[in-house]
Every structure is written in C-alpha cells, then in structure tokens.
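Thread: "does anyone have the structure for this chain?"

Original post by V.I.:
We have the sequence but no experimental structure in hand. Need at least a predicted one for the grant figures.
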Amino acid sequence: MPSAHPSSSLSPSLSPALSPALSPAFSPASAPSASDPAASLAVIDLSRADDPAERADFLKQLHAAARDTGFLYLTGHGISESETARILELTRAFFALPEADRLSVSNLNSPHFRGYTRIGHELTGGASDWRDQLDVGAERPAPAVGPDDPAYLWLEGPNQWPAALPELRGVVLDWQARLAAVAHRLLQELLASIGAPSDFFDAAFADRPHLHTKLIRYPGSAPSGAGQGVGAHKDYGFLTLLLQDSVGGLQVVRDGGYVDIAPRPGAFVVNLGELLEIATEGYLRATDHRVVSPPGAVERYSVPFFYNPRLDAVVETVPGEYLRSAPGLAQDSSNPLHAEYGRNELKGWVRAHPAVARRWHPALTTA
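Reply from O.Q.:
Generated one for you, tokens below.
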C-alpha cells in the first residue's frame, strides 16, 4: 500500500464482532419518552486537570462519566465563544445558500465521501435521516490507490468548498485543528483516569489522524411525520465533540430509555466511540444516541467533530488494572469490527451513503 505508516498502536486480538454501529431506525410510536434533561450528564471542566489541587477529583469524575455513561459535557476546553459563534454563523450561511451552490459540492462528486448530502439522502439503520450536511475531512491530496491496496485509502483526499462562501474553508479547517488538540488532551486524560498510560495512543494519532467535521442542518419535521433527525446509533471511532445550537433534540440512552441532552452554553457534548469500548474490552462505553427532528419548521444546527487515528492504525487493548473489571465485548455476527480502523470507517460510509458507494466503489456495495 502507498501509505508509509505501518499499522500500530491501537487489539490484534479483537473480538470478531460488537454490538451494531447502526441501530434500528427511530420509531416515535415504540421509543421510550425522553426524561427531564436536568442533570442528565456530568459536567467535566478540562482546565481542572492542570490544577494539582483539583486533578485527583477531576480524574475521578471523568472516569465515572466515561465508565457509566459514555457521554459528558466538556467545559474549560479553551475554545472561545467567538470561535463557536463564528462556526455556527458560517454553518447557517452555508445552508442559506441557493440549492445550486450547495449541490455544486455534492458528495456524489467525491470518491472520498466529502461534500454536501441532500436532505434524506443519508441512512442510519437503513432509514433516511431528515437532515442535510456538509462533510469535511483533513485537507490532503488523494493517494494513489492500487488494486492491491486497502479500499479505505479512498477516505483520504481533498474536500469540496462552495465558491459562493469562500471564507468557509479557512474557518472550518482552523476549527478542526483546534478541536483535534482538545480531543487529544481529553483522550490522554481519559486513559489516565482509568490508570492506563496516557500516551498509549499517541503514535496512532501522531501523523495523518483521520479528522472529520460535519456541518448539519435539521430542517424541522419531515412531511411524513417521522421523527428521525438521525437514527439511533453508536459512533464507531474514538471521540466525538459536538457543538449544538440552542434548539436541542439530541437524546442518549440512560437506564433503558432516552434522556434529552439539552444545549449547555460554552460546553461541548462529548461521547465515546466503539473503538474505545473495544480497546478497553468493554470497560469504557459507547452509548446509543439519536436526534429527534425539531417541531414544525424550526431548524436546528450542529457541528460534530470526530477524532480518530490513522486509517491503518490497529486497535490494541489498553493495559491497566481496570481490565479486572472489564466485562468484555458483546458478540454480533451481523456487525464485525476489524482491527484496522480504516476498515470500520469505510464500512460506515458505505452503509450511510450507498449512492456515493455505488457511483465510485461498486465493488464495496456487493462485498
């Protein structure tokens, strides 16, 4: 393969399967009702990690949130209010562009699954999500992918940027770099909180990490009345940092039902992905979550950032005494997870964007 980076540091002895990354589609009739959002998640102040008097309690709280819920509010991250306001302003500006400008960067043009997805054209659990979005990754040239190279190398390549909004490129790429630094620090502290080496994954993220940002609009209720803004799922990577506007709609499974995760000014919503669950043999949790469409014609905007390693990185079990309490991984033959991160990432894109896969990678749609 053309990549100069050998597989390293992420368990060659992976369980062959885990619980499905894509859960059944949202059904308002059968879903548990959401509870009062008050105190639904722990609030973790990352700046406390630097205070010797606060550090032990910080690690204890972070450990509990990651172990028991897999979701948390993150404050003290160093991202300014002006930065968050700017990215949301440009997110709204992108979706306010004429449809022709948005379609000029359609992801159907990209073998790398980058660009704009029209409303209803992304699938979760086989059902359409009532949202549209712009997918942005690390800005890199496309590698030369030969017939004997892993297909996941197609996930690297250039982004598509709308000519009608030239300032978007710089702001989104700067935002992505800023959040990558926050996510890396948080990942190190997560490992420290369970008594593991904090630098265990540093090599896997040191060069060419697979960064991914979505600009998302939920355009109110679907004409069908279905409530699926995005269906129930678990993220299949490492860490997600979500910026959401004031509308709300995110729900997370707690105690057998869904709870609302209300927007909290100045905080990101952070959730753990399945690769951290794998790497800790089930000790840390990836939790099902979904977004319920806002009512009527109300629009909701959000900007999730996904922090993941090199595509060819291989997940290894994180060492530590915590493993004595690790429950292991559930088996599901319908959703095998692979040692190489890139194979799992590509699987998710093919499932969610079958039209792109059929156009550029037809062999993958029949694999």
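V.I.: this helps a lot. The two ends are 20 Å apart (CA to CA).
O.Q.: and Residues 1-9, 11-39 have pLDDT under 50 and may be disordered.
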